[in-house]
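W.,

You were right to be curious about this one. When I first looked at the sequence I had no strong expectations either way, so I just let the prediction run and decided to look at it fresh. Below is the sequence, 196 residues in total, followed by the output.
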Amino acid sequence: KLCANHAHVLKFAHPFRSPRTCLGVRAAWSEGSARQVASDAQQLRQQIESLSEQAEQFNQRNAGEASGTQGTGDTPSLAQMREQLESSQALAENLSQQLGQQRGGTTQTLRGEANAVGTARSIRQQLTRQNIEDFLAQPELLQALLQPIVELEGALRAQAELESAATQLFSADEEAIPDAYRELVEQYYRTLSEGD
């Protein structure tokens, strides 16, 4: 039995094909994009964690210079951190766009999808509103960004896993219909496609 969200697919389904096969095509397409979006969220999290560590090192070095102690030589420069922040901002923008396109490209809204798009937009806005000096002056801003990124990454990974499992479920050969039931199955699909 298919849920009401998939009823629109049946109207366009081939009368001799299983609706699960038709839905499996969508699942296979979105599985790759869901994995890519989840991977981008993971990369964004890693970049923000790295930037947070670099900001902490930079602040410690500056505090050490102010007190007359020598800092480590491997502390990133302000220009390097600015460049990494720009990279993170671009990745957050891309992630937000991907989620918006994924949501806008389907007729079915997945649970939590609107929330994921909103979270990605919020992260992008917070990253683009600040410059590296703001994050250095207030390191807690980067730490505050990590929690929603981790939650978004987890939600996107779960969605990718669900879509992967759905694709595996639909990959079985459902075209083989016993001859004794073929006419009944064809009549069933014709009736469904003629509805409302």
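Here's what jumped out at me. Residues 19-67 form the longest helix (49 residues). And, maybe more interesting for your project: Helices lie at 7-12, 19-67, 78-104, 113-129, 132-137, 140-170, 179-194.

Coffee later to discuss?

I.
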